[in-house]
Amino acid sequence: MAGPGRRGPKRSEEARVAILEAAARRVMTDGYDHLTMEGVATEAKVGKQTIYRWWPSRSALVADCLAERLLLPELFVPDDSGDLHADVTRWLDNIVGFLNAPGNAGLLHSLVVAAAENPDVAAILNDRLGLWEMLDERFTQAVTAGQLPPTTPVPELGDALIGAIVLRGLRNGDLGPTFTQGLVQLLLPPRET
Amino acid sequence: MAGPGRRGPKRSEEARVAILEAAARRVMTDGYDHLTMEGVATEAKVGKQTIYRWWPSRSALVADCLAERLLLPELFVPDDSGDLHADVTRWLDNIVGFLNAPGNAGLLHSLVVAAAENPDVAAILNDRLGLWEMLDERFTQAVTAGQLPPTTPVPELGDALIGAIVLRGLRNGDLGPTFTQGLVQLLLPPRET
Amino acid sequence: MAGPGRRGPKRSEEARVAILEAAARRVMTDGYDHLTMEGVATEAKVGKQTIYRWWPSRSALVADCLAERLLLPELFVPDDSGDLHADVTRWLDNIVGFLNAPGNAGLLHSLVVAAAENPDVAAILNDRLGLWEMLDERFTQAVTAGQLPPTTPVPELGDALIGAIVLRGLRNGDLGPTFTQGLVQLLLPPRET
Amino acid sequence: MAGPGRRGPKRSEEARVAILEAAARRVMTDGYDHLTMEGVATEAKVGKQTIYRWWPSRSALVADCLAERLLLPELFVPDDSGDLHADVTRWLDNIVGFLNAPGNAGLLHSLVVAAAENPDVAAILNDRLGLWEMLDERFTQAVTAGQLPPTTPVPELGDALIGAIVLRGLRNGDLGPTFTQGLVQLLLPPRET
DNA sequence: AAATAAACGAGACGGTACGTCAGGTCTTAGA
DNA sequence: TCTAAGACCTGACGTACCGTCTCGTTTATTT
Q1: A40 Cα to chain B: minimum distance (Å)
Q2: Residues A42-72: pLDDT tens digits?
Q3: Residues A76-123: pLDDT tens digits?
Q4: A162 neighbourhood in chain B, CB within 8 Å
Q5: How confident is the model over A4-35, as pLDDT tens digits?
Q6: CA distances to A82, A141, B190, C77 from A144, in Å
Q7: Which chains touch C (3 or more CB pairs under 8 A)?
Q8: Domain A13-67, what fold?
Q9: Where are the domains of chain B?
């Protein structure tokens, strides 16, 4: 967009940040479906056109918020302590703990809606957030280490894990220890003791 | 709403059906997020008030469409042939086949959005559609029959199965045989040969 | 627009009047070029769409204000006392007095702009206001009565009279007795005494 | 361009002319009310600031276009052949011919609007264009020569003449020979035969 | 039968937000 | 230091729908 030998003023970093922060704040408080461009513009003290100049839609705005870690600040990297059960359990507890935190009640709903409405958001959630990537890595490592059978369908394992969480979350179902332990027991081979 | 000794005309079944069909058509063609009450009213040749008289919101409308099987006509009942692998594989192929069908491209997205925005829709998808219920039943039966270990966390198994499908669908990812076979292999114990 | 056997609610006279009055007020205070649809809507406590439903543009709004005598309440009918000089002088003084009145400073400018931008406004000023028509009538009568030569080009006489006033007004020039007397002397044959 | 011993570039004559020509072109084609600063800047390949540096408003731009004869190239100087009727008739025909020329349809409207909205434009039209001045001169000469009575209110005569034209033009009325002849007959004393 | 009342189609109403256009100011890089 | 480019905040544009509220018509019960 901005060539190297471009004339004119540079994009205002101040405005950019103010917009993203306002958008993230609105999503957290009111949910994605009550997010409006005008609301963001007002809250960010910015002209509407400044938003539309750089983002084509509110979902693109949310995608950028995600990319800048303004909505999901934590990375949820699974540990690699050698104990797969423990690592996955801890990872699950982290995520579930985050989703159960007071302010994050509607966040999952918002992100799912945003992702369903805009492939870019889905892509960001996929790639930039790295949930799948990190799980794949950890599970591939587990296969190498013999903690998982070599025939394990790693991608499906990730989908099943995250999918179960999302589904439960959408239904406002139980996201407690019963759930996480059930998942671990279901998806990981019995711990050899 | 309509007392026994009520005066005046009865609720018009014609209008009711026209509205639901128009709504279902719109969701199928344009997606849930482009569904508008005015659009439905126009397409159903009905006054807006007639919609608002009976449904409080567009998501309630979609919930009713679901309940009337106008959006998901099939029931996806898992077989019980005694061969769990085969039954689950067939069930998965049915669902995936439906989702991959030409007209149903955006349907999953629409339903997820509707469910995320309105708990009633989520409840309908849960209860009335009976996906979880039927899976639970089949898996419980499998536990009884010794096809699954008695410790199997049945609810989580259902969530993992459906969750993986939904997640893949949302990302427009591969919903082919590799995926379904991977899921079966992952979630069911190895077939005893 | 509204057929005779139309169902539905009737057009709200309250809203119609509020809009016209707000528009007229704005034109009087701020001038036609600062007239905005949003301003009118706000001042009339009306939705914007209610304005656009009935008037296609702000000039149409002004045209209607004129037609309803909200901007030019007086009719400026020339007398017919038999004394043409006196009658025309009185008519001129009326008009000039109106234009010179405190609140009406920018009105002429506004109306000229509105008329130049929208033929409908021009037509209203022509026909409904009846300036030309009344002058034509008076002058035709004068021709009949022998107060004007039979060859008098009556339409041009009206244009010259009104045109001179408009031109002076636009330039914020002198609109005093010198001007009116000059016009009378110029355009009417010398008084026979 | 830059004189010797001068620091920094002088005002770009190229830019100035390009701006004025673009503005004049826009007024001729789209009319004054569709004239935009951004449009002129784009068409003149000039930064907006370069316009605002030298002209405070679009009406000032139009005023300058007038002053540079980019909009009204002709001067409309009345002849002084000794025959007042002929001279005025010729002058009227010139003006009317210009206004009736194909490309000049909306020009009168545009100029009237610009003049009504901005006194500077009105002043330019008054002074620089010299319509009134030249008419005054010619009529004063006519008075001296005895072609007009000594009591003729010369300024009002000019206003009546030009005002009639403007009014007719605004109403898109007839600007043909009937009109011009009528005006001459009305405003000038009968030709002495 | 007449009166009554609800449901219907139509659509006007006050609003909110949309996405765009232009205004006028300010900033940057190039000549 | 003037220019071309263009980002910025502001505000109005005209449109799409929202959910509510009349209208006048059409049924279906009571009285």
Answers
A1: 21
A2: 999 999 999 999 999 999 999 999 999 999 8
A3: 899 999 999 999 999 999 999 999 998 898 999 999 999 998 888 999
A4: 163, 167
A5: 567 889 999 999 999 999 999 999 999 999 99
A6: 11, 5, 20, 103
A7: D
A8: Arc Repressor Mutant, subunit A (1.10.10)
A9: 13-67, 84-187
Q: Is the separation of the CB atoms in A84 and A148 below 8 Å?
A: yes
How is residue D169 written in tokens?
A: 């033009």
Question: pLDDT digit string (tens) for B110-169?
Answer: 999 999 988 889 988 888 888 899 999 999 999 999 999 999 999 999 999 999 999 999
Tokens, residue A38: 């005008």
Nucleic acid strand E within 7 Å of A82 CB: no
Domain B84-187, what architecture? Orthogonal Bundle (1.10)
Q: Return d(Cα C155, Cα C160) in angstroms, integer.
A: 9
- Sequential DSSP letters for D151-177: T--HHHHHHHHHHHHHHHHHTT---SH
Q: What is the 3-state secondary structure (H, E, C) of D104-136?
A: HCCHHHHHHHHHHHCHHHHHHHHHHCCHHHHHH
Mean pLDDT of D57-81: 89
pLDDT at residue D130 is higher than 50: yes
With CA atoms as reference, report the closest residue to B181 among B193, B172, B191.
B191
Structure tokens at B134: 């039927």
pLDDT band at C191 (very low <50, low <70, confident <90, very high): confident
Q: What is the 3-state secondary structure (H, E, C) of C58-83?
A: HHHHHHHHHHCCCCCCCCCCCCCCCC
D60 touches strand E (CB under 7 A): no
Rounded-to-integer distance, Cα A93 and Cα A96, Å: 5
pLDDT digits (tens, 9 = 90+) for D183-193: 999 999 887 65
Q: Does any strand F atom come closer than 7 Å to the Cβ of A49?
A: yes
Quote the CA–CA distance of B158 and B128 in Å, as a whole number: 16
Q: What count of CB pairs under 8 Å joins C to D?
A: 106
Q: How far apart are CA D190 and CA D177, in angstroms?
A: 18
- Best of A30, A143, A171, A183 to substitute, by most chain B Cβ atoms within 10 angstroms, is A171
